[in-house]
Amino acid sequence: MKISIEGLHKAFESRIRLGIMSALAVNDMLDFNSLKEYLDLTDGNLASHIKALEKEKFIGVEKSFVGKKPNTRYFMTKEGKKAFEDHLEALESFIKSRKKI
Amino acid sequence: MKNEKDYIKDITEIRSMMERSSKFLFLSGLAGIIAGILALSGAFIAYKVFNFNPDRISYSSMEYGDLFASLMSVILLAIAVLILALGTAIILSYRKSYRRGEKLWNLTTKRLLASLAVPLITGGLLLLVLISNGLIGLVAPFTLIFYGLALFSAGNHTLAEVRILGIVEIGLGLISSYFVEYGLLIWALGFGVVHIVYGIYMHYKYDR
Question: Using CA atoms, how far apart are residues A91 and B42, in angstroms rounded to an integer?
């Protein structure tokens, strides 16, 4: 059965993007490699999902150097937090409405 | 468009990711049980073989001579117990992470170790100061207190039960700092019995 629910954001239709947002919701900052390990993805795959979320302005990037190595860290923006929370609320109300039936 | 099952799976994934990326989840109940058994054996050997059971807070330099020989053996014994218990914990955590297909050495592990390190190193240095001043009666209570503080602060980065374990150890440490003559007994209770009870509880709750 196909269903559509109000409030669910298109950007979160991919479970990988949802995973990235979930990890950033409970960590102030995460570097690329940590995200890669949690999600078990290849560099290219993760990069493309990150780019999509960046484009929506849901996550921000902070580039710095650890010694000579570049270190890229990601964080959730205010917009991202709002969108993620709305998405969770929509999921929650959806589950609740299903339980009643 | 997704169907109902997909959304339920989404929620499961969100929960699991939030937990995995913020908490160290490879603690093993079995490691707690083994640590408890090691601590009980250690305390028993210290008491029976080395005759170590301080009943006062401080010892003057004259009496200290007698105690000193057994104290050295007891310190070595304690270090051996610590290494065995830590080794078991690391091996069992590694096994748990391996089975889940995750790396043991990740961000949450580093955070856990960092929050353990500050109270443990402080406590360790303080113990050296106590011993060098003959305050032998306070050694057992202070190991309990600082171990408890370390667990309490590490509790933010791992399963919530660890905080409760920390509070129990701090409580036992404070009690034994007042009743110094029961120091070794309460130490055996805190590091032995409490670990075993905690380990059994964690094993049944998370590992089965």
Answer: 53
| Sign of the CA dihedral running B24, B30, B33, B34 | negative
Q: Count of alpha carbons within 13 Å of B200, Cβ hemisphere only?
A: 7
Write the CATH number for A27: 1.10.10.10
A23 neighbourhood in chain B, CB within 8 Å: 17-18, 21
pLDDT in tens, B104-145: 998 899 999 999 999 999 999 999 999 988 899 999 999 999
- Is B17–A13 a contact, with Cβ atoms under 8 angstroms apart? no
Q: ipTM strictly over 0.90? A: no
Structural domain count, chain B: 1
| Segments forming the whole domain that contains residue A30 | 13-93
Q: Global pTM?
A: 0.86
Instruction: Name the pLDDT band for B26 (thresholds 50, 70, 90).
Output: very high
Domain residues for the domain of B199 are 26-207
What is the nearest CA distance from A19 to chain B, expressed in angstroms?
6
